[in-house]
Amino acid sequence: MNMELLEHLRRQFAYDAWANREVLAVLSANTSLAARPLQLLAHILSAERLWLERIKKQPQSQPVWLEFTLHQCEAQISELAQLWREYLGQLSLAALSEKVAYKNSKGEQWTSTVEDVLTHVLLHSAYHRGQIASHIRAAGGEPAYTDFIHAARQGLIK
C-alpha cells in the first residue's frame, strides 16, 4: 500500500502537468479571453515552483504572483513537469513525513509535512484551473476539459 501512495502522487503530478498544458492550449487559441486566466495560470506555475523550492530547501526564485506570457507559461509547464518528475522519482516513503519549514506570503512561519505540501500543490492548482474555466466560460469561451477521469480514461496520463 505504501509504495502505491508514491505511485499515486507521481500519477497525480503527471495529471497536473497535463491539465496545465490543456489550459495553456485553450488560452493560446483564445488570446482575447486570456488576461485574467493567464494571470491565474502564471500563479499556478509560480506556486508550484515555490513549493518545490520549499521542499528542497532552496531560496524562492520568483514571486508567487507574476506576469508570464503564453510562451513563458509553456516553458514553465515543461520545466516544472520535469522538475516534479525528478523529485518524485527519487522520493521515498520516509520523506513524505519529513517536515518543511517555510514562511507564507504574509511572513508567517509554518511547518508542514512533505505529503501535505504535495497534496496542497495539486489541490491549489486544480482550484485555480477551476477559476480559469469560470473566467473563460463567462467571457463566452469553451474552457479546457481537465477532469482527471477524462485524462485517465483516455490514457493521457500514466
Beta-strand residue fraction = 5-15%
Question: How many H/I helical runs?
Answer: 6
In angstroms, what is the radius of gyration? 16 Å
Poorly predicted runs: none
What's the overall average pLDDT, rounded? 95
Classified in CATH, the superfamily is dinb family like domain
- Looking at CATH, which topology would you report? Four Helix Bundle (Hemerythrin (Met), subunit A)
Distance between the termini: 18 Å
Oligomer: single chain
Series of H and E elements: HHHHEEHH
> Helix/strand-derived class?
mainly alpha
Principal-axis shape equals globular
Summarize the biggest pleated sheet: 2 strands, antiparallel
How does CATH name the architecture? Up-down Bundle
Secondary structure: helix percent: 55-70%
The tally of domains stands at 1
In the CATH scheme, the class would be Mainly Alpha
How many beta-strand segments?
2
Strand order of the largest sheet: 1-2
Write the layout of secondary structure elements.
Blueprint: H1 2-29, H2 35-55, H3 70-90, H4 93-96, E1 99-103, E2 109-113, H5 114-138, H6 148-153
Antiparallel strand pairs: 1-2
Helix pairs in contact: 1-3, 1-5, 2-3, 2-5
Report on this structure.
This protein has 158 residues and is mainly α. It has one domain: Up-down Bundle (Four Helix Bundle (Hemerythrin (Met), subunit A)). It has six helices and two strands. It has helices spanning 2-29, 35-55, 70-90, 93-96, 114-138, 148-153, and strands spanning 99-103, 109-113. It has a two-stranded antiparallel ribbon with strand order 1-2. The longest helix has 28 residues, at 2-29. The chain is globular and about 45 Å long. The mean pLDDT is 95.
